[in-house]
Amino acid sequence: MTSADCVLCGVVTGALPASVVWHDDVVVVCMDHEPVTRGHMLVVPRVHTAGLGDTPSTTLARMAVVAQRMAGALRSSGLRCEGTTLYLADGAAAFQEVFHVHLHVFARYRDDGFTLNARWVVQPRDELDATAGLLRTALGGYRSLPE
Fold it and tell me: How many helices (H) and strands (E) does the chain have?
């Protein structure tokens, strides 16, 4: 299922131009047209879902496996690559701009210009424990997630 007004649906169907790196029956990997670094790719599911909560776990798992393979390709390609970043924005507050779930894979190297301007603040253990409790409740208890 695709959405007629979604740019990434246009990419996966071939209706819009893209520099495709790799594809299978679940995902298409293409170059980001506004790359952070040279080699910046997007892993895009063929089925339109807006975010993580809408996306089947099997699709997310395939995205992760393909992203791992693409990160390996970056490292062995001859492009400048001292590390890699995987980035998935889920929702407007997380800076998602295209509401078709997708995973960015890009090369990292010293002074590449990419930054995270977060405020990293150490929290006291009691606050961390309280937050963990809220999350355990939301998950339905303290146990392993199903495979």
Answer: 3, 5
Sheet with 20-23, strands from edge to edge, namely 20-23, 27-31, 41-45, 103-108, 83-87
The first and second tokens of residue 108, run together, are 């990292």
**pLDDT digit string (tens) for 64-83?**
999 999 999 999 999 999 99
CA end-to-end distance (rounded Å), the chain: 26
Integer-rounded Cα Rg, in Å, for the chain is 18
Q: Give bridge partners of residue 27 from the DSSP assignment.
A: 45
**What does each C-alpha distance from 29 to 71, 75, 124, 138 come to in angstroms?**
12, 16, 41, 33
Whole-prediction pTM: 0.88
